[in-house]
Write a structure and sequence with these properties.
- The protein is α/β, with parallel strands linked by helices and 759 residues long.
- The longest helix is centred in the middle third of the chain and has 23 residues.
- Helices cover 25% and strands 18% of the residues.
- Helix 1 links the parallel strand 4 and strand 5.
- The chain has an eight-stranded parallel beta sheet, covered by helices on one side. A seven-stranded antiparallel beta sheet has the order 1-2-3-21-24-27-26, with no helix packed on it.
- The radius of gyration is 27 Å and the shape is globular.
Length: 759
Amino acid sequence: MWHTKLGKAHEWSGPLKQQNGHFRDQHGRVLQLRGVNASGNSKLPTSPPGSTHLSEGFFEHRNVSFIGRPFPLDEADQHFSRLRSWGLTFVRLCVTWEALEHSGPGAYDEEFIDYLIELLAVAEKYGIHCFIDPHQDTWSRFSGGSGAPGWTFEVVGMDVTKFMDTNAAYVHQCAQPEDSGHSAWPTNYQKLASATMFTIFFGGKIFAPKAIYKGEHPQDYLQRHFIASFQHLAKRLRNVPCVIGFEVINEPHPGFIGLESVHAFDPLKDLHIGPVPSAFQSMALASGIPQEVDFWVRSWPWPTRRAGKRLLNQGKASAWLPGRECVWKQHGVWDIGPDGVPRCLNANYFARVPSTGERVNFDQDCYVPFIKRYTDAIVAANPSLFVFFEPVPNEAAFPISKENDSPQLVYAPHWYDLKVLFNKAFNSLVTHDVRKLQQGALNLFTATYVGVTGTNKNYMGQIKSITDAGRKLYPEKAIVFGECGLAMDINSKHAFDTGDYTQHTIFLNAMLSAMEGSLVNFTLWNYNPHNDNVYGDHWNGEDFSIFSRIPAVTAKASSTGGAASSAMSAEEPELITHAAPFDITERHYEEGHRLHEHHVGGRALDAVVRPYAAKIAGEPVFMRFDINTLEFVLEFTTPRLSSSVNQTATADTVDITRITEIFVPGFHYTHPSATVHVEVSDGEWMYDATRQTLYYKLDPAYQGAVEGAGKPGNSGFWNSIWAPSTEASVGEDRVLHRIVVRPVEKDEAKASWWTAWWT
């Protein structure tokens, strides 16, 4: 049969290109890429164990190892095999700057890179492709997040051991049990350590022109080393074909750049929780001057509210190294008056370019030039690589001029439900569009959605808005949502106790349906094989992994010992022995089934594992998976050809340009009592359950659908919304092709040559 000459839908090889807003394979087919981030634990070293609830050895930042991130080599087969079985074959591989250059400037961890090369060789065996993510959160582990090496703070003159004492950062490794917990770490973007580093990194020559480090401006020094480290990695990976690109930087942030006043942050845009010093107060605190600052607590309908004051840094510690002082004091933002009291000298310093007085534009003045410099370096190392870029979180896409653009650039924004993210709670009865509220919605009701239908509408609207803006600015570029996901410990970890992932499924289905509806690519945050139900992803209280090998019930982690190869051996709590709960439909796999092992430990798999058109022999216009009926629908168009076109191909001829390949997961569609029912507008199809692939070969002579043909027929609801056929908007020069897939009980399946052949 002709389909036997093809591979699996969710595996691909050969060079990619971008055209008309999509990735395309060497045959010109549109690719829809699905995958995961691997992984949340990659933010942390394996030696010493880096979980953020552990503190021993934390400040020994030059003597660390990330070998074993995201998982040890002896586990690679099982994890890549599982991802392939779930159809998630596109991996955003998280590699921090610290993992590459922790020992010191220019000293690369070649052993870690050797490990990555071996890991990627295993990935290639399973048809996995990836792009490298230079991951960061709030600059560095030492400013409460992840990313940059500890020595980068020395470039600016900061002492990482004093950040908690001076409120220059909220660092989980140094926190107390009564502190604000998981919700506090994003506030580091406004605190002095992170904000100063980002300001210097992206705009130091604008806002701190007097600064010098080893004869070089700190901005040049830091950017040069960041770019050189990832260019070095690109060179080392040049002969690793499964690596298709590098990201510029995860979730870039302007720091203080563009801040209207050093006396206040905007509570609608910048998270306020716990003690919230202004930028001016942060500068004073870091210089050993106690400050009474606002204290914020959770509230409704706004996320937080001011609830009093706190006196910070009563011990008068300094966040600056001996012989160094505040870089912003050096540049006239503030000083200390004759009475010993700090005073602000230029409240609007960061809103305008100091040398010209013109308003600063972070994207155009700072970020785009960096994207250009980074892209040039990566492409110089390997011209075939794509370079993925994203805007500042929750900010709009920005134009890129022709001189700064590159055909290798790919737009890769992120999306989360910010309310769910902050509260770790979700109920499909009511959801909100937080972005709409941040942008000045007239009132709360215009950003409120009711019920599951409302959730679907809410998320579809948000993701469509991001997608439409990207396609308007970058019409030729593919769009990859580099991060999207859900905290699995929502609702006080109710699902962990009961095995009921209903709310998770509703959320993830709404999010992924919106991605499908917008015809974009995505990588879920995240797949973490060392996740457990006590410490989650082991980073700052987050628990996003769609896989958790064994649920944990107690927290008795050791803070010492453990080899790097065991990854999390010294960090794991006491574990129970039964398998982790995973919700799948009543069509489940018993122990011993070939797919059972892959699914055990999966979370909310009903929504995560879903059909999709991986390779489309035309221009996609519609894709939908109905999680209730398990019905999948794809529509795409091709140029209309003359009805007299010469058909010389035989039944076994494989013209790959005409073949669409759909991932049809056994998880939903190959239960022992069920089979797959397929309706097509034209051409022929073949389903290979072992490959989890439906092959559809279109008829090039097809001129258009007969009224009603090929439309889904088992759902009056879907028929009612389908009535205005997509074909009406296709245009006279194009033909619409339609494929419908649904599972049916075997005794309901219509007799056909296909069922006769397979049964």
